[in-house]
Amino acid sequence: SVPINPSQARSHVLPNGSAFLIGGGSVGRAVSVQLSPAGAVQPGQFGYQPIGADSVFADQILDATSTALVIRYETSAGSTAEIGTAKITSTGELIWATPRFSRYARLLADGDVLSIQGSSLQRLRSADGSVRWTRNLFELHPDAVDVVARLADGSGAAVVALDVTSVRPPQYPAPLLYAFNTETGATLWQTQREAIGQRAATIASTTLGTDTVFVFLEFGSTTDAVVERRDSNGALLWQTRLQDVQYSDCPCALAVGADRIALTTSGEGARTIAALGLNGDLLWRLEYSAGVPSQILAASNGAILVADQVAGVNGIRRYRADGAI
Fold first, then answer.
1. Can you tell me whether residue 29 is helix, strand or coil?
2. Is the dihedral of CA 37, 41, 42, 46 positive or negative?
3. Where would a tag sit more exposed on the chain, N or C end, judged by fewer CB atoms within 10 A?
């Protein structure tokens, strides 16, 4: 067996009902496990090969016909750190690996990969990970000295939120929002979030049909999470503010279900979890103590499943449609 770090593990339910988990091992090895729909462990998963990694992050699953995942990994050997991106099948077989680290990645229907690598958005070929096209995101702001880009989860156009550090005032302009054609990389639409006079950062985004849901943090006297839904041209449909959320540079978990949007933000040992209707109405919100960053799933019946660590114990909690556990 290969012990894994729970905070680095990622799990998914595959289209055929089986489950897949991949994680970074505490002994510098990656491990994956697949369970059948009945819970039986499937053979052939990798442990020590093909990737040795301290940290592994699984991104998105492809369709049922050719299920695969893109993972981002980091490992250290002495003083040397190796980072990269790999594509593997759900049975643990390596398709390709590249030393280019993907901050965010998304699988397309044909198996190609959309990837945010440094300050560029790239489309990588399914067969070997070579670059089909690339967009330099620095070019989107003439005064940028640093850019942090986030690729929205989901399907459709490549929707990117860009947080810029500028050499000219304001130092932190309002986030730029772009949509790119996945075939060519051409710009489909662009807009900029309204300036608010204080710093804002994008912490999560996902598609909802042809729309996109963004979560922004606004840093003022309190740290507020602002959820926005924008249409297929980037126009704002609605905005909902969650005041004074728990946050300390930890990932935000965001999921969209049949009738609601669920999100969590994480602070030092604390968590904010909230459910919104698809029209932006706040349905419920809770604060509680928790450990590692959570994973979240919005079920079709209005329930929300959260996997995280409470009182030092890893577990799963199910919230009913009214927020009761």
1. coil
2. positive
3. N
What is the enclosing helix (H) or strand (E) of 273?
strand 270-277
Helix (H, G, I), strand (E, B), or coil: what is residue 311? coil
Between 118 and 93, where is the model more confident?
118
Token readout for 135 is 């967009």
Read off the amino acid at residue 311: A
According to DSSP, residue 153 is labeled B
Q: What are 267-313's pLDDT values in tens digits?
A: 777 889 999 999 999 999 998 887 666 678 787 778 888 877 776 67
Rg from Cα positions in the chain = 19
pLDDT digits (tens, 9 = 90+) for 233-265: 999 999 999 999 988 776 688 889 889 999 988
Dihedral over alpha carbons 136, 103, 229, 253 (to 10 degrees): -170
Dist. CA 87–CA 74, nearest whole Å? 14
The Cα angle at residue 22 between residues 87 and 302, in degrees rounded to 5: 105
Query: Six-digit token pair at 125?
Result: 């070929």
Rounded Cα distance between 71 and 322, Å, is 35
**What whole-number distance in Å separates Cα of residue 323 and Cα of residue 325?**
6
Q: Phi, psi at residue 61, to the nearest 5°?
A: -95, 140
Backbone angles phi, psi at 253, to 5 degrees: -100, 130
pTM reported for the whole predicted model: 0.81
Integer Cα distance of 317 and 325 in angstroms: 7
What count of Cα atoms within 13 Å lies in the side-chain half-sphere of residue 40?
A: 5
What is the DSSP secondary-structure string of 79-142? TEEEEEEEEEETTS-EEEEESPPPSEEEE-TTS-EEEEETTEEEEE-TTT--EEEEEEGGGGST
| 260 neighbors 248 (Cβ within 8 angstroms) | no
SS3 8: helix
Helices (H), the chain: none
